[in-house]
Amino acid sequence: MSMKRTTACMAIALLASCDDARKRLPDSAGGPEEILVVMPKGHWEGEPGALVRSVLEQPMQGMPQREALFRVAQCRPEDFASLLQAHHSVLYAAFGEDSSSVLMLRDQHARGQLVARIGAGKPEAWNALFSANADAVVLAFEEHHRARTGARLKHERDAALASSLRASLGIELDVPGGYRVVKQDSAITWLQRDRIIAGGGLEHNVIEGVLIHSHPYVSDSTWNVPYLVDLRDAATKQRIDGPDPGSYMVVRRAFEEMDLMPGGRAVQLDGRFAYLMHGLYGMHGAKMGGPFVSLSTLDPSGKRIITVEGFAYAPQFDKRPYVRELEALIFSLRFSGSASGDGAQ
């Protein structure tokens, strides 16, 4: 199913538990990037279940291989109790109801939980209702998962590095421990974390990077993928070195007959307009690459675009966990206004 982020055909109600009731709830639990679908077995094995899986397990954008948006687990309504009821992300499918409804319920059974309850009469009506609201439901779950990861990153934030970014760039960014400054000049700040992670009986090097760069703001026509890709390449060609002499980072735009240009869309960043891109990077002159995610917005002066992006190199592993964490990291961007310099190019 195409993820065009269209307006839902039915208004989605956002309901939250009252404060007193919330205090008595357990903390939510469940696997990372996972959604629990509560649906009768017969429907799960039929068209409603196939439809849900096609939406929640559709490929993530900007990945080098097929990886699903979410991990999906399923249980029957009669089994939705105890630990399962505290899952952090639930899609509850209700059938046989007198009227159709789409409700987004927060902290219903646990603190930090989001339940998307979709109710209709016959399965055919349920399928139509879910299809009409699929984009909005996926977006709600994506934002919910990002907020959960963001809360963890805030707890793991490297205070010294955060203070350095505040002083040099005038920004707040929840960069967790383990990142170091690889390069910082008037045009770009390059942070990186290198870790050895076990997998398949071997140990592999995993690289996570964060790039912060700024450019003059020209006009509203700035907010499109080709223009922002060109800005990124201009910044990385001169300053982000690859593993081999003379190599440097570039955006992958095509491979043979395949169009690999990143996908982009407008988003909100703490109430501000921003532009989000997912794509693939490579190294010109070297065999290295992977996914990246970038977020661009105007600085408080309104005269410059600031871009914060994350990239991952983990050829032996699924990239989804790294991309999800990097996306939460760049969405933590805030402006503190205490920079000693403007970081201009």
CATH superfamily of the largest domain: Mog1/PsbP, alpha/beta/alpha sandwich
Determine the strand fraction and express it as a percent band. 25-35%
Structural class by SSE content? alpha+beta
Shape: globular
Which percent range fits the helix content? 25-40%
Reported by name, the CATH topology of the largest domain is Protein Transport Mog1p, Chain A
- What's the total count of β strands? 18
- Tell me about the largest β-sheet: 8 strands, antiparallel
**Total of DSSP H or I helical runs spanning 4+ residues:** 8
CATH level-1 class of the largest domain:
Alpha Beta
Number of domains: 2
- Overall average pLDDT: 91
Query: What does the radius of gyration come to?
Result: 22 Å
Assigned CATH architecture of the largest domain: 3-Layer(aba) Sandwich
Secondary-structure element order, N to C: EHEHHEHEEEHHEEEEHEEEEEEEHE
Low-pLDDT windows of residues: 1-11, 340-345
Query: Span from first to last CA?
Result: 40 Å
Explain how this protein is built.
This protein is an alpha+beta fold. It folds into 2 domains: 13-154, Chitobiase, domain 2 (2-Layer Sandwich); 157-335, 3-Layer(aba) Sandwich (Protein Transport Mog1p, Chain A). The chain is 27% helix and 34% strand. The chain has 8 helices and 18 strands. It has helices spanning 19-23, 41-44, 47-56, 82-85, 123-155, 159-169, 225-239, 320-330, and strands at residues 13-16, 34-38, 71-75, 89-94, 101-106, 114-119, 171-172, 180-184, 188-199, 202-216, 248-251, 254-255, 258-259, 263-269, 272-284, 286-298, 304-313, 334-335. Strands 8, 9, 10, 11, 14, 15, 16 and 17 form an 8-stranded antiparallel sheet that branches. A 6-stranded mixed sheet has the order 1-5-6-4-2-3, with helices on one face. Strand 14 (263-269) and strand 15 form a beta hairpin. Helix 3 (47-56) packs parallel to helix 5. The chain is globular, with a radius of gyration of 22 Å.
